Amino acid sequence: MIFVTILNILDIIAGFSLVFDVGFLLYPLGIFHLLKGGWTIYSSFVQGFPFEVLGGIDFMGGLAMLLLNWHLSSTYFLLLGIAMIAKGVFCFMVR
């Protein structure tokens, strides 16, 4: 249960770093969320569940953080950061 709480806190921190463009957190959290989202999507496909929204948010958020780290910006990154914050808060509420 502590591991899930740490993951939720990392989701919220990643969302805030994406919204407010916190430079030193973008690369490590981007790599982490890209791998976490990819693993979630892969494991859901293996188990026969082809529609994984939360893993998709992680994957796209990680990709957006890496792109923002490389100075490529988009207005959709703000919405994706808000979605990551909402995902972290939601996962706190349902655990």
Describe the structure.
- Helix content is 83%, strand content 0%.
- The chain is mostly helical and 95 residues long.
- The longest helix is centred in the middle third of the chain and has 24 residues, at 23-46.
Total number of strands = 0
Between the first and last Cα atoms, what is the distance in angstroms?
Answer: 8 Å
Mean pLDDT: 93
**Structural class designation:** mainly alpha
Number of helices: 4
Secondary-structure element sequence? HHHH
Helical residues, percent: over 70%
Largest β sheet strand count, sense and barrel closure: none
Strand content: under 5%
Weakly predicted, low-confidence segments: none
Shape annotation:
globular
Rg measurement, Å: 13 Å
Search tags:
95 residues
Short description:
The chain is mainly alpha-helical and 95 residues long.
How are the secondary structure elements laid out?
Elements: H1 2-20, H2 23-46, H3 53-69, H4 76-94
Helix pairs in contact: 1-2, 1-3, 1-4, 2-3, 3-4
